[in-house]
């Protein structure tokens, strides 16, 4: 075995947006630290960070109705929407800093202005959307939200939504013009290119085979998939940002904090069209309301996507099932993740989430006609031949025990780190990439508490709202939104 005897300061496992973001932050905070990025595929950003493997919404809860549930008393709970929006504003501030400093090129390479709409039909849903609008319209982070139940107005916002719909059907929509579409694949490549230019080492087609801590250092066994050459890298700090593979790798590490965690893979599918005449009629991300009893991941949406400067439309998601944890993973991924310490958790979480199981079974068995009917609820005149089914990224839902010891499925992302802070990994999915910066700031706080004080001046320069909430200060929120919009060349 070839030994890489000199330890690196940081090893980033996985060439996606999370590793790229953490590496970028650390390069700003500690310019002299050595960084190595390990990616098992032939290029970076080929799994969940790839533009066609995610919805690219730039999640800011402007249109995603699952973030604003209705309480039993009929009021709308906006707390999660505000939290997600705050997180995305942190991400936007860091991107703006990189653009202003010349470390990211002109923003159109990764972010484009696309209005965000919520759209519903049926009297109860119209009433819900009106109440949601009233609850959010005056919040500093949701300024500019518009509401209409007029078909003529809505058609002006998103022409595909109206033709072919019954005139007497109650409908309503909200719109925020300042929404965005983000190409996280392009952004990942730009960030990693910058890291490599500043001295980081990127090793493609290098698969991690073992991960153990000895003598204060992490020993990472690696196999080069092309030549088959094994080697060992040592690192003072390890971040596992490997998407669906993170669970397996953290299990390999042996840290006690991963005990009890399980994962369940869900495959995403979308209908896609590139027909110019259709794409030209819809420049928006339009989110609907999930059916009663459906999980949050099932929220339907008709999205404009801008990838490499070309616009397309996606509709979905439709869920599928495969035991793989990555699109390029193994058919044994799910079974290989089962341990004695997580088996009861996984069974218990499944039994208490039978609606999710039923949803997945229904999605797997759904015909192309059923999928097209779902599309026609948004675009009634959509023709089947204009759309094709594509398979998007794999997401692995977290299964764990809550504070009361009850097995649960966690919808969202979660940082798992060792007690000594020498290793951390990210589990879960959505809103994921859009909140990459605040999630990685959480990693820094958990893993480098002794350095946080000295880093704070630089962190505050990169993210001026660091340590505070924009929503608590209307003037500061308005100024920050205007500043980042100008830097990123998007509407304020």
UniProtKB/TrEMBL annotation:
Task: State the Gene Ontology terms under molecular function.
Answer: L-malate dehydrogenase (quinone) activity
Keyword match Oxidoreductase: yes
Q: Which coenzyme or cofactor does it need?
A: FAD
Name the EC number(s).
1.1.5.4
Q: Which reaction does it catalyse?
A: (S)-malate + a quinone = a quinol + oxaloacetate
Q: Which SUPFAM superfamilies match?
A: FAD/NAD(P)-binding domain
InterPro entries the record matches:
FAD/NAD-bd_sf, MQO
According to its UniProt record, this protein's enzyme class is oxidoreductase
Q: Which domain of life is it from?
A: Bacteria
Gene3D superfamilies listed in its UniProt record: D-Amino Acid Oxidase, subunit A, domain 2 (3.30.9.10), FAD/NAD(P)-binding domain (3.50.50.60)
Identify the keywords attached in UniProt to this record, alphabetized: FAD, Flavoprotein, Oxidoreductase, Tricarboxylic acid cycle
The pathway where this protein functions is: Carbohydrate metabolism; tricarboxylic acid cycle; oxaloacetate from (S)-malate (quinone route): step 1/1
The UniProt entry, under NCBIfam families, shows: mal_quin_oxido, PRK05257.1-1, PRK05257.1-4, PRK05257.2-1, PRK05257.3-1, PRK05257.3-2, PRK13339.1
This chain belongs to the protein called: Probable malate:quinone oxidoreductase
Gene giving rise to this polypeptide: mqo
């Amino acid at each position: 075995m070839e030994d890489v005897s000199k330890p690196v300061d940081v090893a980033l496992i996985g060439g996606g947006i999370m590793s790229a973001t953490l590496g970028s932050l650390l390069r700003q905070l500690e310019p002299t630290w050595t960084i190595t990025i390990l990616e098992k595929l032939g290029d970076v950003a080929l799994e969940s960070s790839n533009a066609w493997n995610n919805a690219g919404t730039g999640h800011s809860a402007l249109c995603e109705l699952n973030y604003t549930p209705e309480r039993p008393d009929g009021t709308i709970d906006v707390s999660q929407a505000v939290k997600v929006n705050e997180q995305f504003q942190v991400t936007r501030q860091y991107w703006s800093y990189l653009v202003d400093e010349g470390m990211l090129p002109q923003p159109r390479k990764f972010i484009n202005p696309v209005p965000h709409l919520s759209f519903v039909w049926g009297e109860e849903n119209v009433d819900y959307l009106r109440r949601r609008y009233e609850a959010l319209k005056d919040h500093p982070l949701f300024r500019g939200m518009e509401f209409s139940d007029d078909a003529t107005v809505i058609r002006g916002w998103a022409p595909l939504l109206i033709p072919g719909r019954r005139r007497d059907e109650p409908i309503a929509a909200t719109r925020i013009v300042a929404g965005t579409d983000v190409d996280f694949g392009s952004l990942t490549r730009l960030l990693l290119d910058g890291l490599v230019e500043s001295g980081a080492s990127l090793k493609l087609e290098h698969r991690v085979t073992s991960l153990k801590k000895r003598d204060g250092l992490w020993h990472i066994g690696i196999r080069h998939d092309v030549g088959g050459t094994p080697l060992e890298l040592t690192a003072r700090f390890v971040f596992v940002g490997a998407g669906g593979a993170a669970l397996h790798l953290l299990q390999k590490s042996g840290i006690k904090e991963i005990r009890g965690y399980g994962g369940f893979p869900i495959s995403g599918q979308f209908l896609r069209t590139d027909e110019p005449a259709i794409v030209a009629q819809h420049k928006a991300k339009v989110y609907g309301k999930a059916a009663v009893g459906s999980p949050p991941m099932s929220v339907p949406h008709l999205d404009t996507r801008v990838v490499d400067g070309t616009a397309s439309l996606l509709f979905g998601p439709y869920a599928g099932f495969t035991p793989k944890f990555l699109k390029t993973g193994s058919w044994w991924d799910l079974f290989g993740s089962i341990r004695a310490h997580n088996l009861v958790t996984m069974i218990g979480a499944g039994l208490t989430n039978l609606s999710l199981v039923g949803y997945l079974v229904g999605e797997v068995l759904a015909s192309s006609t059923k999928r097209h009917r779902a599309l026609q609820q948004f675009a009634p005149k959509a023709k089947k031949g204009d759309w094709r089914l594509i398979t998007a990224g794999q997401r692995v839902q977290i299964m764990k025990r809550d504070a009361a010891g009850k097995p649960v499925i966690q919808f969202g992302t979660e940082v798992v780190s060792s007690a000594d802070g020498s290793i951390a990994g990210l589990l879960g999915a959505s809103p994921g990439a859009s909140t990459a910066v605040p999630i990685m700031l959480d990693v820094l706080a958990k893993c480098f508490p002794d350095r946080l004080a000295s880093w704070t001046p630089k962190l505050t320069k990169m993210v001026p709202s660091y340590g505070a909430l924009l929503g608590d200060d209307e003037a500061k929120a308005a100024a920050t939104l205007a500043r980042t919009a100008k830097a990123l060349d998007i509407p304020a």
